[in-house]
């Protein structure tokens, strides 16, 4: 990846992060921590990887994306707005009565959302179904699914992975936002997951580990996913919860609360400085 592309993606990711803070602040509720940790992943997917068209959100040949950790909708919405699916002004209406953007993704009301999610562990099952449907229909689209590390404590996740491996769904790419924190604190203290890579392999996945905040590392992992055959592919993206906002980084308390006016201003000052430096 050349320096120009890397800088362009970093600029977009900073704008996605600003959109996350804008949305959660105006909603007075929401989930900034995991949205921010996923911002670079959203950016890479929507500006580099996915075969999509904002002017034709329901194109049958498009790639599908499922946000299994649906509470991180602010990150998805910010990426969709920046990609041109709807006006960025909608972000300020997040979670408002009658507005388009609900607290969790709604495929019926939001352009660009392929699956309604929110109940943790269930989104991956929908993604597996989409991938199987593509195989059965002879379609070439890919299915991408983003999960949280706390989320994969759910048994349904592993049932879905086992099913995907059994059916050789090499058109399915799972991405794990591995920031190490969940609503109750450290993932390893709540219900330890390691070694995640070995567990995924034992369930039939091909696995790559990436730096979830480095676009070259993400590109290498996604390129490996493209070359994988006869198996689902899983990318373990190591990230920092709250990435990009200094006082939110690595703080489990920012899993599900909105900043107050002073915190909002501090966060936006940091992000606007990052945007100015990259522009």
Automatic annotation (TrEMBL):
- Signal peptide residues are none
Q: Which cofactor does it need?
A: thiamine diphosphate
Return the protein name.
Transketolase
| Origin species | Acutalibacter muris
UniProt keyword list: Metal-binding, Thiamine pyrophosphate, Transferase
Q: Which InterPro entries match?
A: THDP-binding (IPR029061), Transketolase_CS (IPR049557), Transketolase_N (IPR005474)
GO molecular function terms here?
metal ion binding; transferase activity
Query: What are the Transketolase N-terminal domain coordinates in residue numbering?
Result: 14-266
The text of the family note is: Belongs to the transketolase family.
